[in-house]
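G., the chain you wanted modeled:
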Amino acid sequence: MIRPTTPDDTAALIALADATGLFRPNELEELGEILGDYFGGNIDSDHCWITDDDGGPVGVAYYAPAPMTDGTWYVYLIAVRPDRQGQGHGTALLRYVEETLTARGERILLVETSGLASFEGTRAFYRKCGYDEEARIRDFYRAGDDKIVYRKALVAQGQ
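Predicted structure as tokens:
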């Protein structure tokens, strides 16, 4: 069941992100701060956290509008517990985001990820979900770690 994230989910979501092995300790700390700001009302109301709950959080997604654009959004975070990956949870979260934004008339959804070999599964996931590599910025995160941007046009049914 996909539902809005609540403050009670915070510890479980940080543990979930940690379990993926894709986030450094400082990034996990920053995630906690972002969630705190979100629940404290310090982040614009267009920012959305959703949780896939199956007897407890198994996945999470965070998406928000790209500043100074018309209808362009980012998926800033999507993660699924490692023991639940490959079961459709990530796809369901991403589809939920796409359908929500499409219904609102938004135009484009972007996702950024690392070019490191350890992120190949992440990149394959986005390609499988219909995202195209739009850009690559070499050595963005650190030397040898490119930023790869994936893009998907959002089109309402019947257009």
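The helical segments are 10-20, 25-39, 89-103, 120-128.

Shout if anything looks off.
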